[in-house]
Amino acid sequence: MDDQDVSANPRGSFRQFLEHLSGAGKAIGVLTSGGDAQGMNAAVRAVVRMGIYVGAKVYFIYEGYQGMVDGGSNIVEADWESVSSILQVGGTIIGSARCKAFRSREGRLQAARNLVQLGITNLCVIGGDGSLTGANIFRKEWSGLLEELAQNGQINKEEVEKYSYLNVVGMVGSIDNDFCGTDMTIGTDSALHRIIEVIDAIMTTAQSHQRTFVLEVMGRHCGYLALVSALACGADWVFLPESPPEEGWQENMCVKLSENRARKKRLNIIIVAEGAIDTQNKPITSEQIKELVVTQLGYDTRVTILGHVQRGGTPSAFDRILASRMGVEAVVALLQATPETPACVVSLSGNQAVRLPLVKCVQMTQDVQKAMDERRFKDAVQLRGRSFENNLNTYKRLAIKMPDTQIPKSNCNVGVINVGAPAAGMNAAVRAAVRVGIADGHKMFAVYDGFEGFAKGQIKEIGWGDVGGWTGQGGSILGTKRTLPGKYLTEIAGQMRTHSINALLIIGGFETCDRIKQSASGTKRRVFIIETMGGYCGYLANMGGLAAGADAAYIFEEPFDIRDLQANVEHLTEKMKTTIQRGLVLRNESCSENYTTDFIYQLYSEEGKGVFDCRKNVLGHMQQGGAPSPFDRNFGTKMSARAMQWITTKLKESQGKGRRFVSDDSICVLGISKRNLVFRPVAELKKETDFEHRIPKEQWWLKLRPLMKILAKYKASFEVSDSEELEHVHHRGHEEPAAI
């Protein structure tokens, strides 16, 4: 496990080694500013540990810019243990405050003096666009501020020369996801979890009493939370600041609600962003909407305002991983910076970490608000980015059914089937496929119980209303089996002829599961040995380890032997002799035939005697159960909608070509490749697949493996972002973005 020998990695070497990046003699200050967001602590932890790892001094700057201005006990050197056991804590342990003083030059002068006294010339700022703008102003003024301090006799000429420039790297911590340039900001996914938990709870009571619920979510200037939660729960109506409803929306909304009730839907959900406006920029409030529904329709209607619940609670696995990746990348960016390097923001694009120019990103973010102020709402939606625009278009297609007379018929039948193990998000994908297919004029057929059911003729036409309320359901409503189609091919072909099925959407795969939740804490010194699912694929163990701050994660893709196990035990024993109380070791279920979970548990128990005790837990099928996360609901919805668009295009291309239309690119798999959603012909994927172990030959996430080791204090190599240079910020790309 100790990755000192890079050649031990069987999947290729890393392009850049951390040994080339020395932080010796450098000091980094880390602060959180503006509104707090879940995941900020994971970012702080990553900055501190990565900074110490490369030999730099790292300082906590408490209470944001206020602490920088006040100095003294507000700027304190951090050590490795300062950030132990904070990954799972919401908010920010170093505090955040709005600061008027920093907006004045006098305040920034005082802040510069406090930093110079400690030799801090590298700043890592975690906050929103206001916080990052302030940091950039500070960076530009830095040399002038130092000159002024020297003239006042507060610092000497040597210090002016020694600390002549300030490097700034930003990470966006904002639950609203309101910053242009990054797919997801730290805290957004956790806020969506809070919203969806509330919606799921409300749905049960609303159904019992046939109620209408108006839910107000945060987003004063950005409707991302409202839009994505509306997609995730199949809301009847959504109000966003970027896309106000058209004139006469009051009547349209009431018609839609009453139509849904007529279809035997027992509840209505309306989601409102707190900054919702009409086309004249006048506010639309939740109370207004309630009054309208009560007056026009007489429905029992309740308002729920979520408020600060959305900021609270434990950060999701996604936010912990995102913040950890960004924190490490931020330190690397600071160490590589020169006096000419402009301030940058570490961002996420698809599954890639990238660096973007801070000023350009802030400018684009402000352009969105300007477009809304000037009532250029189409521009506002486009400026938010392709992902936001696609979410909005997908929501409209899935929420509002056109009258049958207005949908041109394609005369094509499309089947939808679930295969493999059940996975959270499958039902959301089926719902999206059925509704997009119907909107495209196809007849949609549900195939029950996988390929076995297909062969037996368990096929039924499925309508728009049949999939209502499916997004939040766990498991697979259609039923799924792991049976492969091989022995049923003749029967399946016969059923396809009988039902005249022109295209088939298969949702499943080798194994699909993106759920892992495990936390370990206690007053005793204790090590938890956890076994995760995944077959031969170590994704869950690796990413779960990164999210939970594990000390080791054993996976099939990276062979290990008894010496590695011994090194891990010794490393953990030394660590537990300090103030650290907890250890976590993950093991993928098929990582080794002989080094079983029991073996590893017994080894750690024996070697840790007198220092720590051990507990083991085999997570098993709980990882496949439960309600799907917001990410899974939306990912399933968007992937499936995109797949149906592709099927429609292929069916149109095939018309007039006779009965048979089969070529390599008529059988494709849709997935994420780096930053984009791409369709890959199955014939192509064969070459890239390890069929014996049912995994890809190249796993993109393996390059994140050293990140877990570094944060657990192991020597490791690390591949920095795809581009060490600053990338250009694009308003719109040609390809489909992979963002959720």
TrEMBL record:
Names of the cofactor(s): Mg(2+)
Family named by the database record: Belongs to the phosphofructokinase type A (PFKA) family. ATP-dependent PFK group I subfamily. Eukaryotic two domain clade "E" sub-subfamily.
Pfam families tied to this protein: PFK
Tagged with keyword Cytoplasm: yes
Gene Ontology BP term (one): fructose 1,6-bisphosphate metabolic process
PROSITE patterns: PHOSPHOFRUCTOKINASE
GO cellular component: 6-phosphofructokinase complex; membrane
Protein origin, superkingdom: Eukaryota
EC number per UniProt: 2.7.1.11
Reactions listed under catalytic activity: beta-D-fructose 6-phosphate + ATP = beta-D-fructose 1,6-bisphosphate + ADP + H(+)
Gene name in the database record: PFKP
Alphabetized UniProt keyword annotations: Allosteric enzyme, ATP-binding, Cytoplasm, Glycolysis, Kinase, Magnesium, Metal-binding, Nucleotide-binding, Transferase
Organism name: Equus asinus
Signal peptide residues on this chain, from the entry's feature table: none
InterPro entries assigned to the protein according to its UniProt record, in alphabetical order: 6-Pfructokinase_euk, ATP_PFK, Phosphofructokinase_CS, Phosphofructokinase_dom, PKF_sf
Enzyme superclass (EC): transferase
Listed pathway(s): Carbohydrate degradation; glycolysis; D-glyceraldehyde 3-phosphate and glycerone phosphate from D-glucose: step 3/4
KW Kinase (keyword) present: yes
GO terms assigned for molecular function: 6-phosphofructokinase activity; AMP binding; ATP binding; fructose-6-phosphate binding; identical protein binding; metal ion binding; monosaccharide binding
NCBIfam families: 6PF1K_euk
Designated name of the protein: 6-phosphofructokinase
Chain ranges of the Phosphofructokinase domain: 28-333, 511-647
